[in-house]
C-alpha cells in the first residue's frame, strides 16, 4: 500500500511541476513571434495599443501619443489571444489568435477595420514560425 501511495504522490508531483511550467510560459511579457500581449507603440510613436479584457473578450484600446483614446475593438476571445503587432511603416495592426489566426486591422481616419486582403509582411513572424 505504501508503494502505491509513493507512486501516486510522485505522479501528482510531476503533474504539478509541469502545470506550473506551462502557466509561467504564458505569463505577461511573453512574446509570440513578433506579437506581444504588452502595451506596444506604432512605428513612429503616434499611437499605442493596450489590451484589456471585457467578459470573455480581449479589447484592443488604441491611444494617441497624448493619451487620448482614439479607437477600441474586440478582435477575439481572451483564451485564444496571442498578441498584436504593428507594421513597421504604417498604422496597420495585426492580431494573432488561436481561433481566428492572424488578422490585419487597417487604419483609415483613426478607425481600424479588418482588412481581409492585407498581405502580412515577411518581418511579422507568427507564433509558429
Characterize the structure shown:
The chain has 129 residues and is an alpha+beta fold. The chain has a domain at 26-114. It has one helix and ten strands, in the order αββββββββββ. It has one helix at residues 2-25; strands at residues 31-32, 35-36, 40-41, 47-54, 57-64, 69-77, 81-86, 93-97, 101-108, 111-114. A four-stranded antiparallel β-sheet has the order 3-4-5-6, with no helix packed on it. The chain has a four-stranded antiparallel β-sheet with strand order 7-8-9-10, with no helix packed on it. A two-stranded antiparallel sheet has the order 1-2. The longest helix is centred in the first third of the chain and has 24 residues, at 2-25. Mean pLDDT is 82; it is low at 11-29.
Can you lay out the helices and strands and say which pair or pack?
Elements: H1 2-25, E1 31-32, E2 35-36, E3 40-41, E4 47-54, E5 57-64, E6 69-77, E7 81-86, E8 93-97, E9 101-108, E10 111-114
Antiparallel strand pairs: 1-2, 3-4, 4-5, 5-6, 7-8, 8-9, 9-10
Short description:
This protein has one helix spanning 2-25, and strands at 31-32, 35-36, 40-41, 47-54, 57-64, 69-77, 81-86, 93-97, 101-108, 111-114. The chain is of the alpha+beta class.
